[in-house]
Design a protein that fits this description.
homotrimer, Nuclear Transport Factor 2, Chain: A, seven-stranded mixed beta sheet, globular
């Protein structure tokens, strides 16, 4: 197996696409986040205590913007992409995620890791995420320790305020 | 220094090789894990409280499958590969690891980071890991907090059950 | 957008440059660290409880060597580089950092994440970091838990001993 120059260039673009996706979630940059998805994007994230299913770019951005809001801390770090081509304009990718989510409303500090299984498509406007699933490798929830001194949380400034958020329960099942 | 197209393609394959290695450990996928190693692979991992030395693909897979078993949580995230070529069919690589290992049998929650020093070889079946060492950057062990609510642990389903495991003490020294 | 072979090669070199930067900080390798910077490097790291501003390679190495010293544990993991070219010899890069810093002198265990905004320049000696900024995505400080059993800390051996360190207060502001 040898990659062509075009494929190596495409791999670089796809890695940067997924990198933007992670960065935009954690920085509350919803305008740029929207550019990461195909219009018909679909998502199925199988968490430990939840399952998320969303279809369509507008709903996906709405879900992210309302969930990773001004009250929470969100960290999504992507590792070790394994990307291969289905055809010239379609690629599959696996990424290994480490995430942390501190949600004062639920009183939970969640640390976890997931494996993403993505499908990317080439469009006139560059590569986009068309489908994304993940399975949890592990998920551990602790009460938020009173000893944590939160010295900075970017989403406090950039995330959506309470009256700007949609109800996300239509996309989420909770198992606890 | 400029990389050739062949070298850039090889770098991509080697990165994906090491990515599979990490993923297969944490998901209990021992069949695919075996395909990551040259038959004469050797390993020397110098941990904080342990040292692991294994030779040969069959023993390496046996060690991983028996250690990262249905009782534990394992997370191995690889970062910032620095890969260079010794010759057309041999490469060296450094990876920076973050790992977490929750082992109820020992009552330990270990967080750490290591630097891998690998040697890869090109075979008829693609690039393989021939040798791998690591040194610990840090290793911290805590008792498993009773406040941790483990909502998912993939290895519970995919990892080896007690009666399927080998005795790993022949490969491991413990220092505590 | 398609990357040329030269650009893909440059991207690989720049990724390895930043990888060396992270590795050298955490392993106390200050000789190699110096080779990562342009002589006129400047840095502006906007932390949660601090702000660091340094100009010039000698001062930057002096800051790192004196801060990440034999008393502390430092972990700097870089993720999801988004690198683009300004011209043939200049590139911009965003990296998503996860860091941990255990500082017994201050009694603090800091976990955080930042977004780096870098500028790289091609020199006769390869690509170098000319400018680097970061903003915190989050920063959480806890007291060092008495339950932590530190089994290994590489900087204890490789980091600067107290009488070898510079006073870093000229480069740092603390906000707490």
């Amino acid at each position: 197996m040898t990659f062509t120059l075009q494929q190596l260039s495409d791999l670089e673009e796809i890695r940067q696409l997924k990198s933007r996706y992670f960065r935009c979630i954690d920085t509350g940059n919803h305008t740029e986040l929207a550019t990461c998805f195909a219009e018909d994007v679909s998502v199925d994230y199988r968490g430990g205590g939840y399952r998320l299913r969303v279809s369509g770019r507008a709903d996906m951005v709405e879900f992210v913007a309302s969930s990773f809001n001004s009250d929470v801390i969100a960290m999504h770090h992507g590792h070790t992409p394994e990307i291969s081509f289905v055809d010239d304009n379609t690629a599959k990718g696996t990424w290994y995620l480490e995430d942390r989510f501190i949600n004062p409303e639920r009183g939970e500090d969640t640390m976890g890791s997931s494996l993403y299984y993505d499908t990317y498509v080439r469009t006139a406007d560059g590569w986009k995420i068309r489908h994304s699933e993940y399975d949890r490798v592990y998920e551990i929830v602790s009460p938020i320790s009173p000893q944590l001194d939160i010295r900075h949380a970017m989403l406090r400034e950039t995330g959506r305020k309470p009256d700007e958020r949609s109800d996300t329960t239509k996309w989420l099942e909770w198992f606890d």
